[in-house]
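Continuing the batch. This is chain 6 of the set; chains 1 through 5 are on the previous pages. Same settings as before, nothing changed between runs. Recording input and output for traceability.
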Amino acid sequence: QLQASGGGLVQPGGSLRLTCATSGVTPDHYATGWFRQAPGKEREGVSCITNDDGMTFYADSVKGRFTITRDNAKNTVYLQMSSLKVEDTAVYYCTQRNRIVSFPTDPDLWGSWGQGTLVTVSS
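Output for chain 6:
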């Protein structure tokens, strides 16, 4: 099971840290991804990280502003979001799948999904 948290209301230029807590049995090699869905738009990939070697991937729209990290001991993945923009407003979801060598940005290529957390960037 996956549980995303940490969303909220923040002003443009501000920061938030999202947390994805996982429970249950996980394979030896897997990836955890963050996706987001804005009103009226399709779900899009934001970032992902592999559990074993910590390989990270980012969408071009968030490179240099978002950082994904993991704490394997806590079965938790974080998404540190900085320099937030109005267009980052969305419901953010975390998800997992088996090992990757690139970032599968099609949501259908991922497995279970947690309940999302709303991020609102507004002045």
